[in-house]
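Quick note —
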Amino acid sequence: MHQKLRLVPMSLLLFILLIAFNVLAQSSSADEMQKDLRGAPESAIQNPGLMTVTEADRLYYSNEPMVVILLPGETHAYSLWQLDNHEVVNVSVGSVDLLVTWYPFSNSAAAYEATVDSKSHTFKSVSWLYQHTRVIEDLETSSLWSQVSGECLQGPIEGARLTRYPTSFMSFGDYQKNYPGGYVLAKTDLGIQKDSYKSSADGEAPNFAFADDESFKKLDAYDLVYGLILGDKQLVISAADLKKQGRILLDQNDPPIYISYYEKGGSVVAFSLSGIDTATIGKLSSMYDKITTSDGSLSWNSITGKLLRGDGRDLTRLPLIPSSWYAWYGFYPDTEFIK
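Predicted structure written out below.
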């Protein structure tokens, strides 16, 4: 006597397939991560004290490198020397929850709004790497995130992406001069400058999956670069090229972009020239403290972008992202070179 064949309901079959797909996807993400043999800092900086520029003057060196973050209504500066020991800062600024991250072995710094679906998140570094760059974890859902891209790699909110804040890089001296009303991370320790990524725990440099790509071979893996993310397009320039040229006007971009390097203070900034017709006013020239149109009709502060002269408006700061070349290329292999 034959038993009747029991059919699995289509809804149940789809549910089983969905679970299997999620398990495979999470396994794939985990497979792409590598254990960081150096470990991770024991603690993030949580709700730190902030000092005025005047108060910070006696504690910071003039040439101390800072990541500067433009927030609604105020400006913050965080010493990279101090972040070496912690890598992550969680701080609330009015209604904004801010995440500041720095991974010294890949020269990667970023600032994000630490909010996902209107829910605040607190982060810490963990002993995992993705594309040979730091992975961070939020304490609320235990999800894992890329420090470089701000994307959730694994966990309940996988695929979510944090909103990036405009950043620039300058010495404390430049910050002090151009942002007298700004704030500085209160110095709780002196910070320790770590060795380069090449001095890894096992004494060997990592093997990059893209090492044979012709585009990747245009620069040394550990060269410092500065990148811009403009919608679906990414641009990058090596620090050596930027230092050689000093300033670059990308007048073919829409809107035009102006990037400057100032050797005196080591400051690197990028501005959007939206609403400024570079064809009619001629090329921009830059002194240490001003960006000026060739006809002299307009000028701006070269660090803050604030309008100093003429009938115009302040320049819009763009998030300029520092990184070692391998870290940038691992996330943005289709990036365009700025020449």
